[in-house]
UniProtKB/TrEMBL annotation:
CDD domains: Dockerin_II, PKD. Residues 812-869 form the Dockerin domain. It comes from Methanosphaerula palustris (strain ATCC BAA-1556 / DSM 19958 / E1-9c). It holds the Pfam family Dockerin_1. Residues 467-543, 564-626, 628-711, 710-784 form the PKD domain. Transmembrane segments: none annotated. One of its GO terms (biological process) is polysaccharide catabolic process. GO terms for molecular function: calcium ion binding; hydrolase activity, hydrolyzing O-glycosyl compounds. This is Probable pectate lyase C. InterPro entries: Dockerin_1_rpt, Dockerin_dom, Dockerin_dom_sf, EF_Hand_1_Ca_BS, EF_hand_dom, Ig-like_fold, PbH1, Pectin_lyas_fold. Residues 848-869 form the EF-hand domain.
Length: 869
């Protein structure tokens, strides 16, 4: 059997974080309910003590039963040491911890030959997963907030050594599905090894809400993710942290990406999206990215990725190391506001690659060594700042260790680098350290560090950027007369200032003081400029006694039930007490409260601000939208018909109403209904829950497989009574139907679902429908009247003895029951038949008077006629 090794990650100085978290989990676990699930190969003592015992087949059934047992109340589900063999989903309800006995102790192997999408699904908040190894096609899928994953290893290698297809877009996968945002998710000491998909992936449906906020990766590792055409797709990375989602406050600390198919750490640029994706607050610290892209067979250097760190906007990388990556150690495409502090690259083709309309990128104390081509490659960029950059022994293609302004023949991107600052010391290769094609407005301090007499100290760097205006007003509120000191904090070296204090007075000083003598809310504007441009900014100064209530939220106004909102008081006029009403029967007296909304709905928020005898109220109607989190539990997901299923509503957020759609045309509004599936088929069950105050809705679905033959049924509707008659057949069968066979009774057949058939000849036909699936078949038959045949009288009928009128056929059925021809069938006809029976037999066509159709005239015909009276 093939063995794989999942090596531990270095702690990078934050071992105490994991220890504290483990202690917290232990304290919580001591107070919470706990159940034990044992695998088929668990120890005898564990199986004896277990609440649920697995048999090594469909073990997710017992695991889900244990999780459902704690649904609603919370607790801990412990998986004993051993291997759990699963072939379907595992659903983890809210406020539950699912934990094993360590990566080497507990293994969850998820394999199903007919299904690769086999996640451990987390749809409700306050969930913790820890201490197990996940193998096969399984992956962890998180679609909610407040989730922690600790000490979990994931690989597509099964226990049999086979590498299985990947089920999800990442072994650790956060999916903002367009119904709500996701925040507060942490991965600690987690590893993805030998995977056919991304190790870690953050993604979204592409439609708002799609925020992934406050996501932490601590001491995590992605190794050998992606195997080209064998994988889920050919663009597999170790950490794929942005595709369609918006990211806020993402931290990666002490993480390692090693030998992945594409890049190690990747943020998709996304500026061409509509609207562009958001990137804010990205922090990457003490991370290592090595050997990425080396197994990739795509053409180099024209293929974009295969880099150590691929970033684009609003990111700070500190003490990060890139080693031997096939493309760049650090790749910035279309970048804005990116800072590298104390970062190094060793042996990648390029140390830093900054291209395609990048601006505002800063490197502080960074080093590029032994690069195969260039230490720095930049084109179509401006306001790039290199402070104390060292390039050592780069390959020196075209006679230079760094290249600016050239971009292998792509006119759109082969643009110069302008308005930038380069403080570079070169070692090893004594070629020209840097060349810039057609660059303007740049400042260069270039040195050869190991040449005698060439060492020197660079002058203090002066940024060539245009200013970015900002200032501080102290104090910003108070009573008139109030002296306010204004301090300029503008970046970019402004050379002139213009202050407008909002009360008709101005100043050109850099840091003026101004005294306000009248009450009011004054808007202060600062204009700054230099040779490269100008900028302005505004703040308000509040002078007076009466408060003016106001507030906002610091992040967002749409959350899932259980999420928090940060409220910020923006009132003016010195309020010293606050009363908040959040619309959900809770209040707060904090100045800037953080409130958790446990109930789903749409809520108004009210703030009463008070100072002395003065108060003011701000009310914002329908201000906060809290989505319920729909989740369901089923006690059985497959079985034979008739199958009885107990459904459990495990939704989070106290929904005010719910609707179950059982997928077979029937519904229920009960909280925990019981439904019977009488026929075989695959049914999609949908639970829709709604918040209060006409609040938002959320949906959860589950798929049930019921074995059993279908029940055949149909209707037949003729169009007319005169041949040819066209009949429309409508299939109304119940259950899963894989095939149909119609026999129309006239020698013709069909396999359509609801065919239309034309009968050429009048008559009554037996039409039969047979429906089949893999479990059996069912048939039913209906008589179809395709019209009456044209009437033709029997020739040779004559009047009976003593009668003046011919016998008649009143029912037009070629039977002459009106023997005396008086237009009625009565007792006189019976007497006449009795008296003249022999004469009829000798002189009339027998078929006209053979009422019982036995081929002769006899007493039975008289009895038949008598019974008609």
């Amino acid at each position: 059997m093939k063995q794989i090794s999942i090596n531990p990650v270095k702690n990078h100085g934050i071992r105490s974080v994991g220890l504290i978290l483990m202690l917290l989990l232990l304290v919580q676990g001591a107070a919470a309910a706990s159940v034990l699930v044992a695998a088929s190969d668990s120890s005898a003592s564990a199986r004896s003590a277990a609440d649920y015992r697995c048999d090594g087949s469909s073990d997710q059934v017992q695991i889900n039963q244990a999780l459902d047992r704690l649904a609603g109340s919370g607790g801990v589900v412990n998986l004993a040491a051993g291997t759990f063999h699963c072939d379907n989903f595992i659903y983890v309800p809210g406020a539950i911890t699912l934990t094993g006995q360590g990566e080497g102790g507990t293994t969850i192997e998820m394999i199903n030959s007919g299904e690769t999408d086999l996640p451990i699904t987390v749809n409700s908040p306050e969930v913790s997963l820890s201490s197990f190894t996940l193998r096969g096609t399984g992956y962890i899928k998180i679609t909610t907030s407040q989730v922690t994953v600790t000490d979990v290893a994931a690989t597509n290698i099964g226990t049999n050594g086979h590498r299985y297809p990947a089920g999800g877009n990442g072994m650790f996968f956060i999916w903002a599905d367009g119904t709500h945002n996701i925040e507060d998710v942490s991965f600690i000491n987690c590893r993805a090894v030998d995977c056919n998909t991304h190790g870690f992936n953050l993604n979204a449906k592409g439609t708002a809400p799609k925020e992934t906020r406050n996501i932490r990766f601590i001491n995590c590792q992605a190794t050998r993710c992606g195997f080209g055409a064998e994988s889920r797709d050919t663009d597999i990375t170790g950490f794929d942290l942005q595709e369609e989602n918006d990211v806020y406050d993402i931290q990666l600390i002490g993480c390692i990406a090693d030998d992945n198919w594409e890049s190690g750490f990747h943020f998709e640029p996304g500026e061409d999206e509509t609207p562009p994706t958001v990137k804010q607050g990205i922090v990457i610290r003490d991370c290592i990215s090595r050997n990425n892209g080396q197994r990739n067979t795509l053409t180099y250097p024209y293929h974009t990725f295969m880099s150590g760190f691929f970033v684009s906007r609003n990111a700070v990388l500190t003490n990060c190391k890139a080693i031997n990556n096939r493309n760049a150690g650090f790749f910035v495409q279309g970048g804005r506001n990116i800072i590298f502090n104390d970062c190094t690259d060793d042996g990648s083709s390029y140390g830093w690659k900054i291209v395609k309309w990048s601006s505002g990128v800063t490197l502080n104390d960074c080093t590029a060594s032994d690069n195969k081509i260039w230490a720095l490659w930049s084109a179509f960029a401006d306001h790039i700042t290199l402070n104390r950059f060292v390039q050592d022994n780069a390959g020196g293609l075209y006679g230079t260790q760094s290249m600016l302004g050239w971009y292998y023949g792509e006119p759109a991107y082969e643009q110069p680098v302008n308005d930038s600052y380069f403080d570079i010391t070169a070692y090893g290769n004594h070629a020209l350290p840097i060349i810039n094609f057609n660059g303007t407005g740049n400042i260069y301090y270039l040195r050869w560090g190991d040449w005698p007499g060439q060492n020197g100290t660079a002058p203090p760097p002066t940024s060539p950027a245009q200013p970015n205006a900002s200032f501080i007003a102290s104090p910003s509120t108070g009573f008139a007369p109030l002296a306010v000191q204004f301090t300029d904090t503008t970046t970019g070296v402004p050379t002139d200032w213009y202050w407008d204090f909002g009360d008709g007075t101005t100043s050109s000083e850099q840091n003026p003081s101004h005294t306000y003598t009248q009450d009011g809310l004054w808007t202060v504007t600062l204009h700054v400029g230099n040779a490269l441009g100008d900028a302005s900014t505004q703040q308000t100064v509040a002078i007076g006694t009466n408060p003016h209530a106001g507030f906002t939220t610091t992040d967002r106004r749409v959350i899932d039930a259980g999420g928090t909102i940060h409220f910020t008081d923006t009132s003016t006029g010195h309020p010293n007490s606050w009363l908040w009403d959040f619309g959900d029967l809770t209040t707060s007296t904090d100045e800037n409260p953080i409130h958790r909304f446990l109930t789903a709905g749409i809520f108004m928020v009210k703030l009463i601000a008070t100072y002395g005898a003065g108060t003011d109220t701000e009310v914002k109607s329908s201000y906060i939208t809290v989505y319920p989190v729909a989740q369901m539990g089923v006690d059985v997901s497959d079985g034979a018909a008739p199958m009885t299923v107990h459904f459990t509503d495990r939704s989070y957020g106290s929904p005010s109403s719910r609707l179950w759609d059982f997928g077979d045309g029937s519904t229920s509004i009960e909280q925990n209904p019981v439904h019977i599936y009488p026929y075989g088929g695959t049914y999609t069950v949908t639970l829709t829950v709604e918040g209060i105050n006409g609040g938002p809705i959320d949906r959860a679905t589950a798929t049930l497989s019921v074995t059993g033959a279908p029940s055949a049924s149909f209707t037949a509707t003729p169009a007319g009574t005169t041949p040819p008659v066209t009949v429309t057949f409508l299939d109304r069968s119940i259950g899963q139907i894989d095939s149909r066979f119609w026999s129309f009774g006239d020698g013709t057949t069909s396999t359509e679902q609801s065919p239309v058939h034309t009968y050429s000849n009048a008559g009554t036909y037996n039409a039969t429908l047979t429906t089949s699936n893999r479990w059996g078949s069912s048939s039913t038959t209906l008589q179809v009247n395709a019209g009456d045949p044209p009437y033709s009288p029997i020739q040779g009928v004559i009047a009976l003895p003593g009668q003046s009128a011919l016998p008649t056929d009143p029912n037009r059925e070629r039977l002459y029951k009106d023997l005396n021809g008086d237009g009625a069938i009565n007792f006189n006809d019976v007497v006449l038949y009795f008296n003249e029976m022999d004469w009829i037999s000798d002189n009339e066509p027998v078929s006209a008077f053979d009422f019982n159709k036995n081929g002769k005239i006899d007493f039975d015909d008289i009895v038949f006629l008598f019974n008609l009276l």
